[in-house]
Amino acid sequence: MSNTQTSTFTDSALSDKVKQFLTRFKNKQGNYTYVDAIDSMMPKNAKYIVVDYNDLVTEPEIEIIFSENPDRIFDAFGRAIKEALQTRFPSYAEKIKEEVRVRIANFPLERSLRQINAETIGNITSVSGMVVRASEVKPLAKELVFVCPDEHTTKIIQLKGMDAKIPVICDNPSCKQRDFELKPEASKFIDFQILRLQELPEDLPPGQLPHYIDVTIRQDLVDNSRPGDRIILTGVVRVEQESVAGVQRGHSGLYRLRIEGN
């Protein structure tokens, strides 16, 4: 199938294609690898499954889209896994529906930290390096619940990235309140951590200072690495806006790279 044809997949069709892969793929022993993985999620209290990239390439349509737009494939896997879970463990599927995800193992394209640049934004890659800094683990909002102080309105804000748009206007036209109250006990949070990854000494060109990049990790990936550890990490290259002196906040044209760990 051509790249043009794969790009015409609707999200629903792509989810169906991924679900077909998950339910039909067999390993060399004849076992349904990913059916077994999904079946084991509830007993293990797991919110993800691991898919081997070497298995994924048996479905060229999925692999092509993955190389061009990994976020579409991650979303499609999330939907497909949730659908499969709902037929097996409906209550557990409902409980973790906002946290279901896939991890990709054995991704073959490994770049050095020096090769992570503007041309790699949005691409999935593997990098190796040494952890030189690890932040404290913090709660990252996935769903925020705000309530009007006069109890006119409850607003639920879904977050996909790092930005939260806080409501400022009540739905009641006669209400003058502008300070909505956050209800943390009704909101949903996940664990979040930032690692700083630095070039390995043996990869450092003579006379050069080591390059580094910040890596964001979430959920059960947090607190698994500490400064001094050598790791190989797979993730998607992202950008985040930097502040520039003299430029209004949010209007800077300067960005920095980071990797969102998978």
Write up what this structure looks like:
It is built from 8 helices and 11 strands. The protein is α+β, with helices and mostly antiparallel strands. The protein has 3 domains: 3-105, mini-chromosome maintenance (MCM) complex, chain A, domain 1; 110-137 and 192-261, OB fold (Dihydrolipoamide Acetyltransferase, E2P); 138-190, Rubrerythrin, domain 2 (Single Sheet). The protein has a 5-stranded mixed β-barrel with strand order 4-8-9-11-10. α6 packs across α7. The model is unreliable at 1-5 (pLDDT under 50).
Task: Give the SSE layout.
Blueprint: H1 3-7, H2 11-24, H3 33-39, H4 41-44, E1 48-52, H5 53-56, H6 60-68, H7 70-88, H8 90-95, E2 101-105, E3 110-111, E4 124-134, E5 138-147, E6 154-158, E7 181-182, E8 188-198, E9 212-218, E10 230-241, E11 255-261
Parallel strand pairs: 1-2, 3-4, 9-11
Antiparallel strand pairs: 4-8, 4-10, 5-6, 5-7, 5-8, 8-9, 10-11
